[in-house]
Amino acid sequence: MICTDTLSLGQFPDRRPTTKCKHDGDICRHCLGTWIASEFGTKIWDEIRCPVCPALMEPADMEEFAPSDIYKRWNDVSIRATLESTKNWTWCGLKSCKSGDVHDPRYPKFCCKVCNKAHCITHNVAWHKGETCSEYDYRKNKYLKRAEELATQKLMRDTTKKCPGCKRKVEKSYGCDHMTCTKCKHEFCWQCLAEYVKNRRGRMIVHQPGCVFHNPSFEPEVLIY
């Protein structure tokens, strides 16, 4: 880009567009500013180059030659990018607050030193006071809550049964299938709920059909009452 209009020397900068340029400074301030504005609208903020050579525009070049509104926007983007490249940099979660700070990601609660507001960096919401992140998830995620409820119900079905004697729920955590209710002392088979009864040989049980212990050829003796 070279200006072809007849202009006074005062309309040209007194130096090259960048400190790395090797060519003459034959671009007027207006054309250079227009070029920078166009490049800022189409390029990444740190890829704006001289209109004549590949030299990148540096902060001092942008401040001197860019239109004031473009420079302000460029400077804001530049500062934001620099901060975000800082390890563990975290922005305040309050939209009206433009501050931030370095924050240890192991701790989800971020307290802004400018607006004094706290927010959760895990969920990007205002801090859920009185709740851990897991508790917040549980409260907010109704599908997760329902899934856990169903899992609990299944666990109850798989590990507990009603005692045939007192109807109290009995849990089996280990051991054989000969159960004794801790409340009413009723003895029964965990698999089929058949009752253990007394005969001349002591304790016995007639398992229900379908039970893994059922013996179709077994004939129980007369019970003793």
From TrEMBL:
According to the UniProt entry, its GO molecular function terms are:
ubiquitin protein ligase activity; zinc ion binding
Question: What keywords are assigned to this protein?
Answer: Metal-binding, Repeat, Transferase, Ubl conjugation pathway, Zinc, Zinc-finger
Task: Answer yes or no on keyword Transferase.
Answer: yes
Q: Return the broad EC class.
A: transferase
Q: Which residues form the RING-type domain?
A: 1-211
Enzyme Commission number, as recorded: 2.3.2.31
- Reaction(s) the record says it catalyses: [E2 ubiquitin-conjugating enzyme]-S-ubiquitinyl-L-cysteine + [acceptor protein]-L-lysine = [E2 ubiquitin-conjugating enzyme]-L-cysteine + [acceptor protein]-N(6)-ubiquitinyl-L-lysine
The record's section on InterPro entries has: E3_UB_ligase_RBR (IPR031127), IBR_dom (IPR002867), TRIAD_supradom (IPR044066), Znf_RING/FYVE/PHD (IPR013083), Znf_RING_CS (IPR017907)
User: Per the UniProt entry, what is one GO biological process?
Assistant: protein ubiquitination
Record flagged with keyword Transferase:
yes
Mind telling me which PROSITE patterns this protein's record contains?
TRIAD, ZF_RING_1
List the protein's name: RBR-type E3 ubiquitin transferase
Q: Give the species this sequence originates from.
A: Clathrospora elynae
